[in-house]
Amino acid sequence: MADQHSLPLPLPKEEDVVVSQFQVISLESIRIACRNCSLLNLCLPTGLTPNDVERLDGLIKHNHPLHRGDYLFRRGDPFRSLHIVKTGAVKTFAPSPEGGEQVLGFHLPGEIIGLDAIARTSHISSAKVLETSAICEISFAKFETLTAITPDLQQQMYRLLSLEIGQNTEMLLLLGRKNAEARLASFLLNLSQRLRRRGLSPSDFYLSMSRHEIGSYLGLAVETVSRVLTRFQDDKMIRVDRKHIELLNFSALMTLCESAGQHRQQQRT
Amino acid sequence: MADQHSLPLPLPKEEDVVVSQFQVISLESIRIACRNCSLLNLCLPTGLTPNDVERLDGLIKHNHPLHRGDYLFRRGDPFRSLHIVKTGAVKTFAPSPEGGEQVLGFHLPGEIIGLDAIARTSHISSAKVLETSAICEISFAKFETLTAITPDLQQQMYRLLSLEIGQNTEMLLLLGRKNAEARLASFLLNLSQRLRRRGLSPSDFYLSMSRHEIGSYLGLAVETVSRVLTRFQDDKMIRVDRKHIELLNFSALMTLCESAGQHRQQQRT
DNA sequence: TGATTTAGTTGATTTGAATCAAGTGTACGG
DNA sequence: CCGTACACTTGATTCAAATCAACTAAATCA
Questions:
Q1: Residue A206 has pLDDT above 50, yes or no
Q2: Percentages helix, strand, coil for chain B, rounded to the nearest 5?
Q3: Looking at CA atoms only, how far is residue B26 from chain A in angstroms?
């Protein structure tokens, strides 16, 4: 899905793996663990001493790269480990009985997947790879034991769980109050910000998810997503070419986000 | 607010405090700490040894009862402690610049408030008391230190944070996919279930929040909340009299919840 | 390579819920 | 106890976004 957008980069060797549109890693390199990981400052090890990182590192299992459509886990699977996106992108979703999916989130490198299952014995959501991705896996039981003797790691874990809650809260605000334009604008700016933190361009990127998935995530119909993107382009706020997005006018997008949206404005309760 | 609905119970003494429509506690009793708390099996101490409970207990600060409209904290306040509802009810919300409020959650006894602020220095939401409530307060710094040397408590904390994430996820599903009827039905059943866990009637209860607050929480206009409740009553699924709610037909409500709602049904992505 | 499927766009129409507008009943302050 | 304010209800109207429908362009595959 991503391959056809590759910029002219050194051609991958046979044994190498294309993990995203901008990145090619050798099979050797996926064996590198936390202490050398480029996500050191985005991921679990953030703020840990080199010593602690090494111990954490010992728990991480590096699976073979997964490809578009592969599952990390399915709803109902027993919960045993957390998954961390190393490269690529993953979506989590709630499968509906009729075969449909409600997308719950898109996950970029350094983001942890499966936090909602800690309190349970099995997963309540499913996770699927959007583009070829390298995924770290960490046994939660072992991890929990390690955090019990590593205060910094425990603190970091609280931080991450809390961040997740805060992000969900923002999403509730978005779904509860914002109209279609504000939702799309928020979505694009959020993605942009997360890409920036990863050292990628915040204004020029490729979407690894379909319009349908975006719609599902934002509570909108595909047609609405399409129409609003076109409108944004007509208004010179963005440029769209299929999955390629360029953000041209950040402040206009931000203004849209803040506009209360759907309902003129919140009344006093 | 709750007082006028009180069932014929022994009249409270002058120094006593009415904390909810069904419960009157003496000022003395609010000094009772975790080890005697009726929420022992719903709250933080769940699964802890008596010894650990005692240590946790030492950190808990019991404030004076708060009354309707009192703030636990406001957005922007420095985050220092977690709050736990002991009796009563609390709402959390995101204040909007124009003075409006987007309700983020309603919190019953045993539920922890402020988990979204752990990763930050200040609160991102505000919390206000809906009816006279007793609130436990616990310094997060001290608590964190205690969890670092109490594996069971740490585990419980992970569990609670994860549960919160899972609940938010359900809310995302609700806001993203469900129509007005499904939202109200979910709301009523959710409340019912939480009351049952607390030993209260799951089918006959009083709402401590206004229609406006329900609407804000569910992403609906007040008028819609009112209309749907009336419709439910016409269909004999519930009986409503102001804040008094009786659930008459659980299975009908459950069926409504599951109906995909707004959109006929999710398509494959 | 051409055929078929799938993703995305665009337009027309419908519709569920918001908004606007009265009205009623309950709570509350003097 | 009365008057005012506020919470809630109910009806009429509007509107944003869903649905329906048709079409185009990619992607996939035989």
A1: yes
A2: 40, 25, 35
A3: 31
Q: How many CB atoms lie within 10 A of CB B14?
A: 4
pLDDT of residue B33: 67
Asked if pLDDT for residue A201 goes beyond 60, the answer is yes
User: What is the pLDDT, as a whole number, of residue A205?
Assistant: 96
Q: Is residue A131 part of a domain?
A: yes
Both A99 and A216 in one domain: the answer is no
Do residues A96 and A183 both lie within one domain?
A: no
Nearest-neighbour CA in chain B from A158: distance (Å): 7
Task: Please indicate whether, in this complex, the C-beta atoms of A158 and B160 are within 8 angstroms of each other.
Answer: no
Q: Provide the CA A208 to C1' D6 distance, Å, integer.
A: 51
From the list A96, A119, A147, the residue facing B266 with the nearest CB is A96
A32 part of a folded domain: yes
Q: Which residues of B touch A265 (CB under 8 A)?
A: 96, 98, 100
Q: Is strand D within 7 Å of residue B264 (CB)? A: yes
Domain membership flag for residue B269? no
Largest CA-CA distance found in chain A, in angstroms, rounded: 63
Residue A137: which residues within 8 A CB-CB, separation 6 or more?
A60, A61, A62, A63, A81, A82, A83, A84
Task: List the single residue in A155, A168, A267 with the smallest CB-CB distance to B169.
Answer: A168
Give pLDDT tens digits for A141-158: 989 998 998 888 899 999
Provide the domain count of chain B.
2
Residues A206 and A134 in one domain: no
Kindly report the pTM of this predicted structure.
0.84
* Domain match, B131 and B254 both: no
| Strand D within 7 A of A226 CB | no
Asked whether the predicted pLDDT for residue B23 surpasses 70, the reply is no
State the SS3 of B41-78. CCCCCCCCCHHHHHHHHCCEEECCCECCCCEEECCCCE
Check B119 against A212: CB less than 8 A apart.
Answer: no
Give one DSSP letter per residue of B212-262, joined into a string: HHHHHHHT--HHHHHHHHHHHHHTTSEEEETTEEEE--HHHHHHHHHS--S
Q: Which residues of B touch A113 (CB under 8 A)?
A: none
Query: Where residue B134 sits, what CATH number does that domain have?
Result: 2.60.120.10
SS3 B184: helix
pLDDT, residue A32, reads 52
Q: Give the tens place of pLDDT for each residue, B37-95.
A: 777 777 887 887 888 888 877 778 777 788 899 999 999 999 999 999 989 999 999 99
The answer to whether B229 CB sits below 7 Å from nucleic acid chain D is yes
pLDDT tops 60 at residue A23: no
More confident residue, A100 or B207: B207
Q: What is the pLDDT of residue B85?
A: 93
A102 touches strand D (CB under 7 A): no
Q: Say whether the CB atom of B41 is under 7 angstroms from strand D.
A: no
Here the CATH number for the domain that contains residue B234 is: 1.10.10.10
Q: For strand C, give the nucleotides within 7 A of a protein CB.
A: 7-12, 16-21, 26-28
Domain boundary among B173, B198, B224: B173
The verdict on A59 and A112 lying in the same domain is yes
Domain hosting B252: range is 178-258
Residue B266 in any domain: the answer is: no
Q: Single out the residue in A124, A143, A173 at which a domain terminates.
A: A173
Task: Please say if the pLDDT value at position A2 is more than 70.
Answer: no
